[in-house]
Each structure stands twice: as structure tokens, then as C-alpha cells.
Design goal:
- With 393 residues, this protein is α+β, with helices and mostly antiparallel strands.
- It is 25% helix and 30% strand.
- The strands form two sheets. Strands 1, 2, 3, 4, 5, 6, 15, 16, 17, 18 and 19 form an eleven-stranded antiparallel beta sheet that branches.
- The radius of gyration is 24 Å and the shape is globular.
- The structure holds S-adenosylmethionine.
- The site of S-adenosylmethionine (SAM) has 22 residues, from helix 5 and helix 8.
Amino acid sequence: MPHIKVKPFDTAIVEEKIPHSELLTFRATSYNRGDELWGVVIDQREFLLQVKKFDDEVLIKYDKVTRPLKVNLLKEALARVAQELNLEIISSNITQHKESRFASEYEKQIEDFESIVFPFEKVSVEVGFGSGRHLLYQAKKHPDTLFIGLEIHTPSAQQVLKQIALQGLENIWVVNYDARLFLEMLPSNLLEKIFVHFPVPWDKKPHRRVISPTFLAESLRVLRQGGRLELRTDSNNYFWYALETFFAVPKIEVEVRKNEALEVTSKYEARWLKMEKDIYDVYVTAKEVSEPKEPISNFNFNIVKYQKGIEDALPKKAVVEEDYFVHIERCYKINKTRWLIKCSFGSFDRPEHKYILLQEDGCRYFVSPPVKTSVNAKAHQKIVELLSHVERH
Ligand SMILES: C[S@@+](CC[C@H](N)C(=O)[O-])C[C@H]1O[C@@H](n2cnc3c(N)ncnc32)[C@H](O)[C@@H]1O
């Protein structure tokens, strides 16, 4: 990731440059450690640079939480900082290259689903599509249906986006995100099918499995009446685990098949077929129309604002509740009444990492609010509570 190493200098000089700079917006110093965060803005995109001071050099690099998707923006910010501050570069890796990330209109971000319009009447989802063989096949076979493919492995997601372009398909969206949290973003009664083909069995860490009571409940909510969740697995353990999970629900229609040949064989499945392994299908049909999804409120802080002493009063350890947590990791001081608070919170599977900009006249997430999920909403309420509690001191 882009960085520059420069000869040691007094980082406080940034303060003098900020009022005249079109790039630098603020300098925040760590409350109890030596490192700093500098706010920058390029092309109307705000993000942070991290500054670490060592005896013989200063390292200026990207900040993981706020980094822009376009790496070249980061490189430009680093180059301009070095120029504006007249820094002596020891080494760097900020030569601009053509972006290697394959950009496609068919790639969607999780946040897009907060207000997305589905351009097809029929919508199906595939969880963990891997090489994408099944996803591409289904999309070709059903041009009237939108297929949303979820995959946490970025290279696989990129590969399938390239295939979509090559094959000229217009009915696939790819989301590089954890499927366990994604379904929550969808309205009720939307989906025709949810395919979960050969999920990772996670025999030693069952809590990481895609199928769970929560996933089942969310699946039944987002499937239309008569829609189907289709699990296909080569794992005996997973098969029995799934059946147990499904049968724990009072009224449910479950169908089981063994060694059923599908029209398309995924790369993964082909391997098991060669080894003559048994393959199980478990289908769950949604029998009822579900209630509409509860709206999630906006992540604003209303009356929360900076109060003296906040930096000392916030909890040092993570606050852990049954289904979410909040961890205030670090406080950075911009000036006496303006602070940046680094925190992680939300679900244990896919935590959010954010900064909160806390000032005398209000408070906001920097640079953008968290994804609108119910665990994030609960965690946000806890953060508001923690910051308000401090106010009473
Ligand atoms: C064993 S592979 C099967 C791939 C493909 N379905 C097939 O049949 O060849 C499991 C895939 O699920 C993906 N995966 C695992 N957990 C996931 C999750 N929580 N959300 C989305 N994808 C996930 C993995 O990255 C991997 O590509």
C-alpha cells in the first residue's frame, strides 16, 4: 500500500499550512501515543493519512479505515503532501499505475442496497459463488431474473465481473461482502431462490458457517411465498447440522435429495464427483408472506457534542453485548474541543471500523456512516449512550 518515508521534521508545521492548503484539512495527534492522523480532501473525497514518527524517519501512509477505493487518489495525496510541506523523501512507492481493480457497473457495494431499485421483477441470490460457474449459468438461462452473487473472496469476485463483461450479461450483480450480513439489506418477499452451494464446512468453528438460525430466519423473510433456499453440500456434518437448524423452526417445509445431478457442475463439485463422494441437497420453501422489513433509523448523534474530559471517561475495554460490541480504540486530539475517536463495533463476524468526529457543535461519523444493519444500529445506540454519559460528568 502507498507510503512515503521522509527525513524527520517537526510535524507541527502542518498546522501552519492547513489554513492555506486545498489538500490538508486538520492534524489530529494520538492522545496517548506518538502517531498522528492528517485529514485530506481530493476530488471532494475526504480521507486520512497516518503519520508515524521514528528516530531516523517519518512514515506517511494510508489509513485503513478511510482509504479511498482508488489507490491513485492516495498516491496523489502523498505526493502533494510531500510537495506542500517540502519534505525530503527517503523512499516511496507512489508511482501512479493504471488501476488494477476491474471497475464494473455490475459490482455493487453493500451501502448501495440502502436505497437500491431492482431493475428486474425476479431476483435470486447465490452465496459464495467461487468460480461463478453456477451463477453465470443461471443468469444465462434466466435472462428475466437478476442474480445477486455474494462472495467474500475478492479475486473470485473480480474474476466473475470480468466474465460478466466478456459474456455480455446484464442480469448479474456482484457484491464482495459477507453473505451472513447481506440478506438484512433486502426487502421482505423479494427473492425467488437463495443458492448456497458447497459452503465452507467450518467443522472446527461452526459459528462461522453461513447457515445458522439467523440466516434461515432472514432467508425466510426475504424469499417470496413459494421461494426456495437451496443448500448443496458434500459434507455429511454440514448436511446434518443444516437439517437440525431447519427442523428447529416450528412450521417449515424441507425437502432432501441425495446425489442429484444438476445441469451445471461447479469446479468444486467436479472434484468431489471424481472421488465419488455423496452430495446432499436440502431445499427449504418459504410458505408464508413475511412482514415488511423494519426501517433502520439514521446514524445521527443528535444532541451529542464534545464535552471536556471525554477522552478520559470513555471505556478502555470493549463493551460486549450478546449480538454486538463497541470498542473505543483510540482518541486523537485536533484541538481542545475537536477530537477524532477511532472505534470498532457491530457484528462479531464483520465489525465496522470508523472514526467519529466529535466537536463542540456536534458529532458525525468520519467520513461516512456505518452500513444500515440492525446490529450496527444497536451498536450506534450504545456509542451515543457512552458519549452522552460522558456529557453528564
Ligand atoms: C467451497 S467454496 C464453493 C464455491 C462455489 N459455490 C462452488 O460450488 O464451486 C465456498 C465459497 O464461499 C465463499 N464464502 C465463504 N463464506 C462466505 C460468506 N460468509 N459470504 C460470502 N461468501 C462466502 C468462499 O470465499 C468460497 O469461495
